[in-house]
Amino acid sequence: MEVEQQLTNKELRKNIFVIVWPVFVEVLLGALFGMVDMMMVGKIPGDTAAAVSAVGMTNQPMFLALSLIQALNVGGTAIIARYFGAKKFNRMGNILKHVMILAMIFCVTPAAILMLLFAPEILSLLGGDATVINVGVDYFRIVTIGFIFQSLSFTVTAALRGIGETKVPMKNNIIANSCNVVGNAILIYGMFGFPALGVTGAAIATALSNFIAMVLNVRYILSGKSVLKLDFKEKFEFSVDVMRDLVRIGIPTALEQMALRFGVIMFLKIVSGLGNNVYAAHQIALNVLSLSYSPAQAFGITASSLMGQSLGAKDEKLAERYTKLCQRMGLTLAIMMSASIYFGASLLAGLYTDNVEIIQNTIIALSIVAFVQPFQSHQLITSGALRGAGDTVWPLIAIFIGSCVIRLSVGYVFVNFFGWGLAGAWYAVFIDQFIRDMIILLRFRSGRWKNIRIA
Q1: How far apart are CA 76 and CA 243, in angstroms?
Q2: Scanning 34, 40, 406, 442, which has its CA 20 to 30 A from the CA of 83?
Q3: What is the DSSP string of 182-210?
Q4: Positive or negative, the Cα torsion across 204, 209, 214, 219?
Q5: By three-state DSSP, how is residue 55 classified?
């Protein structure tokens, strides 16, 4: 019996690996390209702190807008994964059309209009001074154009992940991100006869890479090579039940992401009061953190896909076992990443900038990031599994308590009353992530996610 169980676990690990490695490569390289993007901006001659801060501030409302798209994508992934597990392949394309229509009408169009019209006001609201706003406005508006293409690309990628098809999105996004890095080098610094556009050049390269990713992903889904078929010539069959499920699953996820971004944005205002150099160091630390939890993101996406497929096949025990294996495998990698950050903090900081004050503050932040990372990784994986089951309320509760209550209140006290500076801010992040992880873990262990039904 013991040998049989071991063999079964090996088979499960193999199934996990087939899905997770392309997602991991995609997410990791995406984060690495993001790091390179920030490094290139950090090496622009002139006010380094203003350039890095402008890009960092612009990222926050952009992440908020994308998170609303991803909220709908979570519902689409969960439903498509269940249909795939139940072998109802003919219904999956219509689900994707529902997600696309909802995303464009209720998320992409209004968000793009707001960001284009009110770019200076948004940067000011985020704590940017006149220098940062002057540098960041054009960057913000150009990246917003790219956001429209990025949103559609994300929706197609999420649908493909629901059926465990992760290699094609990986390849397409590697191509697009490679174009982004090359475009950065050409347009930021002025190469091959192009003018040196600085931060604006980085924005143009980003928007173009998003367009390329969209074209590649949409072309594939229209080609008929995937079991997930999308044909715009077919009549769209509107379904109230599908819309209801997408909204029921998506609204808590949207609120979760809004709560997260609200917490992050308000937290950035606390940190921005410490000065541009400290703020730039904080952005670098966030950039490194986003790279470090790439394995957790990959395992979270994989857990979500396998959870949905297992529940679609009406095998709750299999869903639970997949999740636990994803947790263990992801946490092992997370600990390895944490050690690399802790012992390589000085080297990492020096890759971004030559400013001594920024480097010193970045090292302080990264030494704490190393301890934040395992808890954040664990809760990302478990949250992914819950979302795959359609259980999106408890991730919302965890985010609200952790990001909006704990992080803001503790961070404010540590920074403004105790005077602990950037270290105090990151201590608050550690407490937030620890509490979040405990809430999500308790919800998963309760087993109540097994009772959620999707039409």
Answers
A1: 10
A2: 442
A3: HHHHHHHHT-TT----THHHHHHHHHHHH
A4: positive
A5: helix
